[in-house]
Write the structure tokens for this entry.
Amino acid sequence: MRHAWFVGVVLLVMTIATSAAAEKSKMTQGKITSVSADSITISTGAESMTFAVDAATSIKGKGLTTKANEKAAKGEKMTVADSLAVNDVVSITYTEESGKPHASTIKIVQKGFAK
């Protein structure tokens, strides 16, 4: 009985913690206007937003796994600039860290075309 109560409390705490983390995540979509090794900037219509990116940032899109495998075969690592380009339309899930947006997941919605 005591063990079941303890398990119930642990599950409740985990649910609350997961819920709180999910509430802090935000999502936006826009066109990339700038890409660097540690940030990307997108235009969301009238405003521009810059997001920090790092090794924890997950970038998803068609063909990225193939590209990553090709680079790995050459002994190279994928970079943000390898995955994303100016004019790509992306969906970004992010959190605020020290008042600045940090991208946790970037999904390429549509590859852009260079002008």
